Amino acid sequence: MPNVNCLGICTGGGDAPGLNAVIRAAVKSAILKYKWKVIGIPDGFDGLIWPERSHELALKDVSGILPRGGTILGTTNRGNPFRYKTCENGQEVIRDISDQVIANQKKLGIDAIISIGGDGSMKIADELFRKGMQIVGVPKTIDNDLSATEVTFGFDTALHTATDAVDKIHTTAESHHRVMVVEVMGRDAGWIALGAGLAGGAHIILIPEIPFTLDKICQHLALRQRYGKRFTIIVVAEGIRLPTEMKHLSRTMAVGNMIGDAISLLAQKEVRISVLGHIQRGGSPSPYDRILGTRFGVAAVDLVAKGGFGKMVCLQKECIHAVTISEAAGKLKTVDPDGEVVRAARAIGISFGD
Ligand code: F6P
Predict the structure, then answer these.
(1) Whose CA is nearest to atom 8 of ligand 1?
(2) Model pTM greater than 0.90?
(3) How is 110-129 classified by DSSP, letter by letter?
(4) What is the CA(187)–ligand 1 centre distance, in A?
(5) Which of 82, 86, 260, 311 is the most exposed, fewest CB within 10 Å of its CB?
(6) Angle, nearest 10°, between helix axes 287-306 and 19-32?
(7) Separation between Cα atoms, residue 124 and residue 79, nearest integer Å
(8) How far is the CA of 141 from the centre of ligand 1 (A)?
(9) What residue owns the CA closest to ligand 1's atom 14?
(10) How much is the pLDDT for 250?
(11) CA dihedral sign, ordered 244, 250, 255, 260
(12) What is the rounded CA–CA span in Å between residue 22 and residue 254?
């Protein structure tokens, strides 16, 4: 068993509802179960560049944070100690400051670190582990696109937010007989779009995993018109690949706007566009995300206690497990275009624009 007396915790990458639930659970179980000291490292691994910014986390510091969105530790999706961007003599240079980060961890007396983050943070955690850091990962992303875990916390809350938006769009779309485009997050995978589209009763769902054409979208609008349906809701994942006829356009605006403008022109319909953006990352975590975050936080502390360094906690068959970070990092979980969920959507008449 490793000799751990002091645990460091950091959150990296884009925030997700439930981060505070993980922090709270990890702090509580580290203190109550293992009697360790806990140090909060601010702003991901950037916090170890300036060790004086780190501070002890006592039980009182995590009191009341369970329903809070964001992260009490702060985060960044730019900080990578192996490729740290800095300015020297007016020039931007990239330096490997990982040795400094490891030295500062030791200076703070931290024996092991729990890194809560997405794929980028896991890659950094793996590199630090290979350099000797005793580190354990907790997966996070609203996109739910990490292959090693069935679900990441943050996804459920984001899905609720996106579904609520589609519900609200529904009534105004129907009243005005409009085509309404709702762009949701999902950089590489269409989980939020598929989920919110299904749960919100959308008529067309566009996701990165299924190539589509504007023609097919317009055909679907015409089909709905023939059925006497004068409004249509299109949920678009931000990560869609543009159809061939739009490939020449540069992505200077949100894809939701690009798709909406193109449809308006082609189908001669009144189109309105809502880009949900970071609203999906904010707000109070859902009960599911609070529970998953708590389970992950406790499991990560147990993993540290067992010496399971270089590993990441995950959810498999609804139970908490651990996989090596190297096995988990860089592997995306995308929507299966022929999977049961997509087939169910097609069966109830939803078009994927293909
Ligand atoms: O990975 C989570 C995510 O919310 C993506 O869905 C989105 O593309 C990205 O982060 C946005 O990042 P940023 O906060 O840097 O704009």
Answers:
(1) 187
(2) yes
(3) --EEEEEE-HHHHHHHHHHH
(4) 7
(5) 86
(6) 40
(7) 10
(8) 9
(9) 14
(10) 85
(11) negative
(12) 32
**289 classed as catalytic:** no
Mean pLDDT, the chain, rounded, equals 96
State the alpha helices, DSSP H only, in 245-318: 255-267, 287-306
Confidence (pLDDT) at 77: 85
For residues 328 and 336, what is the distance between their CA atoms, to the nearest angstrom?
Answer: 19
Residue 186 Cα to ligand 1 middle (Å): 8
106 backbone φψ class: left, alpha, beta (φ>0; ψ -120 to 50): alpha
Of the residues 46, 119, 143, 156, which is catalytic? 143
- Residues 23/65, Cβ–Cβ less than 8 Å: yes
User: H helices within 131-213, ranges in order?
Assistant: 155-176, 191-199
By CB neighbour count within 10 A (0-12 exposed, 13-18 middle, 19+ buried), where does 211 fall? middle
Residue-level pLDDT at 234: 98
Q: Which atom of ligand 1 is closest in space to residue 77's alpha carbon?
A: 15
Q: Of 18, 65, 199, 48, give the one whose Cα is nearest residue 113.
A: 48
Burial tier of 241 (Cβ tally within 10 Å: 0-12, 13-18, 19+): middle
- Ligand 1 neighbours (beta carbon < 6 A): 14, 77, 118, 141-143, 185-187, 238, 281
Q: Nearest to residue 25, comparing CAs of 293, 314, 315, 309?
A: 293
Q: Is 199 exposed, middle or buried (0-12, 13-18, 19+ CB in 10 A)?
A: middle
Q: Which two tokens stand for residue 22?
A: 């993980």
